[in-house]
Fold:
Amino acid sequence: MGSRWSVLAYVVGAVCFVISCSIAVFYGYKVLTHQLPIENKVQAKYQYHFVLVPEELDNEYWRLVEKGARAAAMQNHVLLEYVGPEQANIDDHLKTIQMSAASKVDGIMTQGLSDQQFTPLINRVVEKGIPVITVDTDAANSKRLAYIGTDNYFSGYMAGKALIADTNGKANVAIITGSFYKNHQQQRVKGFEDAVKSEPGIHIVAEEESNISRVRAAEKAYQILQSHPEVTAFFGTSALDGIGIAEVVEKYKSKDHLYIMGFDNLPETIAYIRKGTIQATVVQQPFQMGYDAVNMMIDIIKGREVQTVVHTNTRIMRAKDLTKLQQEDLEGVR
Structure:
């Protein structure tokens, strides 16, 4: 009798053990299947993981680059991260690239920066097998695999020639540039200077730095007008410079006596052109840059041959050019 009870006890214990294990396995499975599907879905949905590092995160110009990149990313099953400094800062920019490389992303798209700090980092990233494309501003001395964006020297040259035409070759010009040290700003200034240097009636009387800040651009414009009352024209080489200059001109000086050449077609720039405060601006194609950069990165990963330098179109926009087509281009509509 005792042996029967012992057998029964063992059977009951075994059944309880099996049930316990089954419950543990069941709930373990439930936990896992509530944690992993997100990753599985990401792996199934996205073929590549790219990072786009802008000059400044909430800059309206770079938001258009992001918009183009996201459009291409959605079409090609790419997970796109848009990360970078809140305000233009080379150290934060470099840290973002370092973190992206450490995360072993499939590709990095970034604005090119100064050779001294930027080139060694990009070279290390590429040597580790992560392709890098520069967007908007090149870093030609690095091992970046391709560049897509404006020919910045040519855009400055174009601005200079447009200013000559619009002022009949007679102007005392002040230049406000986003940065004395960034490649694309240097190239725009150099192009402009080369365009006007042979004109006897064009004189560059001042050059100041805005640090890619509208407020700073306005401060510098005000200081220039106080120190150089002979100034009759301004050239702003970054997207916010023309806007800052226009604010000061409207507030302190008759807009009819000053010519302003801006850069990019942000909504405020367009509004100032409509009012006649800004006479012209250099228009780039940031949406196209972002869109083509993603497609170019995919081609590189797949081993396809790509052009190492692709210059997007640049043009001068004046009030007469403000049509529905330009407005759609401003909004990034393809």
In short: The chain has three domains: 2-35, 48-150+286-313, 152-283. Residues 159 and 165 are 10 Å apart (CA to CA).
